[in-house]
């Protein structure tokens, strides 16, 4: 690439990163791929990602993108490098019918054997009895066919039972979930379709969007605190605690129990800069590249362009490298990057 256009693009990225499309700022300098946030827009809220061979598929909450793409029922996008994404469409052909009304939020997709399991939330704002369902597909792009309700809030005994996360250990299936009424976990039946046994509380009422990652003998419990959906005033941030056991107890870096209201070690929060992002949170699965670097995908709202014209929160997809400091995960400066960064390496 000629040096003058490269400088122009880099200057534009630094001045206003929210204005640049992903394909425009995948820059090559000295054979090193670079990128700048956001990596996908206009919306991919509450993301989840699954790697299938050399390809990645990411999914997000049901949303109406208005004039920037229309309505999407659990959109699915595809990439080979985590930087350049192609919108494939909707991962579901139709909305599940086990609830009269509500949105399909915060999907969690995992490959289980040769199939792909999507646990999803079915809820309205302020819903007195939201729940979690399961849909299964033969291919990562779908279509995901609904298997029905796994549980609702009244059945499981936890208010606002949304934001599922699936994990396996020792040949058993588990589901973590919860939204500001405690983070919980339960074992599932062998087919993954119903809870089995007693639920365990992992964290307190200040968190939602549970995600558990195993590394170096610890289980790291990530959760999001604050508000997700108030445009430029969103206060979302990602906190973490860890345990030597999947079932807990979990503690933050200061030794506080994650059951305590003020617990959690900061991973990433809003940018201090007015050109940055508000409400970074609800992280997807951690992806490790060919050089052993770990990467976190999550959503955030550009402060200068936080909503679509139809009022939908413009929760774009963000990507940043995780640094492990004293065996604790963090994003540089504890905030989303807004300048050109070295991209993940794939061989």
Describe the protein in words.
There is one protein chain. The chain is mostly beta strands and 347 residues long. The protein has a single domain (40-340), classed as Glycosyl hydrolase domain, family 43 (Tachylectin-2, Chain A, 5 Propeller), CATH 2.115.10. The protein has two helices and 26 strands. Strands 21, 22, 23, 24 and 25 form a five-stranded antiparallel β-sheet that branches. The protein is globular and about 50 Å long.
Helix and strand arrangement:
Blueprint: H1 3-15, E1 27-29, E2 32-35, E3 48-52, E4 55-59, E5 63-64, E6 71-72, E7 75-79, E8 85-90, E9 103-112, E10 115-123, E11 131-137, E12 145-152, H2 153-156, E13 165-169, E14 172-177, E15 183-188, E16 195-203, E17 208-215, E18 218-225, E19 237-243, E20 265-268, E21 277-281, E22 287-288, E23 294-302, E24 316-325, E25 328-331, E26 341-342
Antiparallel strand pairs: 1-2, 2-26, 3-4, 4-7, 5-6, 7-8, 9-10, 10-11, 11-12, 13-14, 14-15, 15-16, 17-18, 18-19, 19-20, 21-23, 22-23, 23-24, 24-25
Pathway: Glycan metabolism; L-arabinan degradation
Family: Belongs to the glycosyl hydrolase 43 family.
Pfam family, one: Glyco_hydro_43
